[in-house]
Amino acid sequence: MATLLSIQEAEQPLAPAPSWGAFLELGFRPVYLAGALWALIAVGLWIFAPHWLSGPLAGVAWHAHEMLWGFVATIAVGFLMTAGAAWTGINPVQGRALAILCALWLVARLGFLAGAGTPFLIATLAELLFFTLAAAALLRAVVVSRNARNYAVPVLLLALGVSDALFLLAAHDGDYALLMRQFNAGLLIMTLIALLVARRVIPFFAMRAVPGLQIPMQLRSGHIQLGASGIAVACLLADLPIAQALALAVAGVLSLQHWVSWKPQAVLHKPLLWILYLGYLSLGIGLLLAAASVAGVGVRPALHIHVIAMGGFSLLIIGMITRTALGHLGRPLEADRSMVASYALVIAATVFRLLALQPSALAIHLLHVAAFLWVAAFALYLWRFVPMMIRPRADRPAPAAAPVATPATIVRPGR
Question: How far apart are CA 314 and CA 347, in angstroms?
Fold first, then answer.
């Protein structure tokens, strides 16, 4: 009998440890988490502690600003920084530069909470730097790579920042009418960006996920849709309501036509897809309601805003920050129960918020229910995704484990 030290037993692979390098390697990691966290904090403050909000951005002005630019536009920046790396082969921002971008965003959020005076001015500067530097980083990537198809995207991102600056200036001057006009301009610019992104990714994602599914990318009508959305922004700023209403109606009708052509019945078994379809449908409906509101057809102004913002942006966001995060983290593109639950919670929050817009004795209670559901949805997202976001990709090869030598008794033949 001989004892040999020759048998190697492989250790069970351990989950990779959290890593700052991994966390800051692509824009979606910190920005998605920051946006989702702020989504639940901002709604919680607005509904349950509005007395904490003071200064030029107080009350409705703070709520409108923080939900559009502090949450929705922030998630758009995270998505575009990550998509830009795929479009161009150049990572627009990572590492220390990404950390600085996130620090600017955080300074803005805290400054706007601090009130008037110097904190408001510092927050405004940080906010504008956030959008300017993000747009510049994306512009550099598309220009260096000569990615002509996406030259307009950083320009749209910069326009979103300009609308933010004009909103903040109106808030500082106390001009509520001008403030609402700038908010509506920002809402339409964000809608244009959402339509552009959704029209590209939804058919692409659907045809990859559903075997045999063939649906049109709607390039030609998509260009008309984007042009109509841009005209709507210009008409808003030029105070041409009838032309604005017509442009909004064209964009809305085309959105619904796209949705039908993408065969929504084929994706009902794919939560990662139907949530995006539902968000795109809501954008189309919201644009038609916006057209009716601008034309004075008896639609309450708050209705189209919430259909676009909650039914459109928020459903697209909860779907995109799930699907794109899974893809870029090397995870299977399948929604688990917690993810589907977060989708259901955002949908329910949207329904209750829209019901709360109707004057009734139940309105305040419906509003509180909507807020609880909203907070729960994004808390659930954070619970599921924070552990993944702070670690390296799941499909990245781990360092080989050191061999472990163990004694083994070998019985020779015939013994």
Answer: 9
* The pLDDT of residue 399: 42
Least confident of 73-87, 132-146, 294-308: 294-308
Convert the pLDDT of each residue in 40-60 to its tens digit: 999 999 998 988 888 888 889
CA 42 to CA 204: how far, in whole Å?
33
What distances in angstroms separate CA 93 from CA 85, 96, 113, 390, 399, one per listed residue? 9, 9, 27, 17, 27
SS3 per residue for 266-312: HHCCCHHHHHHHHHHHHHHHHHHHHHHHHCCCCCCHHHHHHHHHHHH
Two tokens, residue 108: 């803005």
Q: Tell me what pLDDT residue 221 has.
A: 95
- The single-letter DSSP state of residue 217 is -
Query: If you average pLDDT over every residue of the chain, what do you get?
Result: 91
413 SS3 class: coil
CA distance 374 to 358: 19
Domain ranges of the chain: 16-174, 204-216+224-389
In the prediction, which pLDDT does 14 show?
A: 60
Helix 241-261 × helix 271-294 angle, to 10°: 160
Dist CA 159 CA 178 (whole Å): 17
What global pTM score does this model have?
Answer: 0.90
CA distance 180 to 291: 16
- Distance, CA of 241 to CA of 294 (rounded, Å): 6
